[in-house]
């Protein structure tokens, strides 16, 4: 007889080798004093080897009390002196269900994703796992659904985009213990990338040292923002942020030019999206626009100004002018000049003869950089060369015109907040005369001249130089007047067929042309081009002259190439000299006309000569009369006043009308406090005027001139 006795403090069902032997789960609960016993009729219930006794007990108390007892009774008498050996029974008691847990990622950007699980306790007799799942489609969680029974530890689950899923496992051991509940895992399927945006508060080009950026996305599930900067060949991470909402960030930079940025947004599921490139343009350099080189001297009352440099991003261009009489040196007074620029060119009219004009531009670009000239600032890096010559972007102003003894200041940066100021050398012995901390200014050509470190300062390689100077863009002198005539012209007959001409140099002569003609109808021959003599007399000798009439003139040429063909002879302006070398008459007795020696005729002849000069021409006649010595006498006859280039007579043209004044007074305003002028020779438009102006300029077309007389 096999007796199984069991004591528990709760109702339960009991198994032997997987066969139910007793159960009182249908009744009420009971305490531990209640004994459950079962007598088995045969021994076949036991198997050879390991026998397993299992119980499932319902326990509503804090502790489980459990006891089992198995008795075997052999009732047949031992008639054959049989003594059975003691029976050893090994019982495996397993009443505890295993514990397990499911695992998934929190997010998936794929509809198929792995689900895994593990045993949380030290159970080694796991038979398998039931996998249960529930889904959330936006309206709540569904009931749990059994997916399958697995003997492994993972599987692949197929979900849908936008759904969330929960998973749990119920593990079962080999004796039939089944897990009643377990910890679950949750995952969301998100296959849609975010839509990020990147913006800046700076529109267009800016001169700031940075810009505020803002970024964000159309959803709140962004795990990471990455701001990237294009570095010439690849994108480089510049800044990362875990913020999930719009974020304002200061982007500092000292670079100039166009910088390209983009934003990468990655959501929790690993979806990544990138914004279009954002371009930021930084420009902190003033526009390099200046005037094309003006001629040193200009022979017209209007001049064309031509811009040079990069004019693409100009937003405004002001121009100022100053002027002084050519030989006057004083501080300049700058005034605005209103001109209209067309294709980088503008015309300034109303310029006065004998005055020097200065012009300076004040250009401004789209970033707000303005190229100031009072003073101008220029920064550069030196290359360390010996006797370095640096060309300035615009011309430096002479101290006398700027009204300052130091118009050019050069600083050398020696540290982040320190610098050394160099001294300008004003001597003539360059570079030997300079000290080792001096530089020289080439004002005419707009250059800074340095030395070798002993004679003159030598900037080191990559030394940062800061140059501050009073500047202008161009200058010219208006010269409309022809040169003065050759002065005190005299002629000497050195022999029968040679003469010497002498004369003094007028102030504005650059060279002289000595010209001769044997027949005025055939024109003039240039005998010599001569540089002027300033500390004595100019002299020219012409010899081997044949016996005929010869005509001479000394032409003065000035710096503009203007020619003055008249000469000053004994205080009178003449067009040419006449030399009469015709042979003497010897077939008749010679009678000397003593009236030539009489001084009484000379004033009359001079008066006639002056009359000739006043009507447009005159000449001296140098004669050789018969056998007497050559003499020079005044010829008063009008027929000797011939034109320089004889041509057929033309009809007289009417006198030129008087030059129209550039400005007039608008009728009626001369009696009002609101005086107005009218631009008569320019645009014919009106503009406000002042009664005490010495010079006015039309604000519409730029015409310059003196104000009209006010009644």
TrEMBL record:
<keyword id="KW-0472">Membrane</keyword>
<feature type="region of interest" description="Disordered">
    <location>
        <begin position="644"/>
        <end position="664"/>
    </location>
</feature>
<keyword id="KW-1133">Transmembrane helix</keyword>
<feature type="compositionally biased region" description="Acidic residues">
    <location>
        <begin position="647"/>
        <end position="658"/>
    </location>
</feature>
<dbReference type="InterPro" id="IPR036116">
    <property type="entry name" value="FN3_sf"/>
</dbReference>
<feature type="transmembrane region" description="Helical">
    <location>
        <begin position="600"/>
        <end position="622"/>
    </location>
</feature>
<keyword id="KW-0812">Transmembrane</keyword>
<protein>
    <recommendedName>
        <fullName>Fibronectin type-III domain-containing protein</fullName>
    </recommendedName>
</protein>
<dbReference type="InterPro" id="IPR013783">
    <property type="entry name" value="Ig-like_fold"/>
</dbReference>
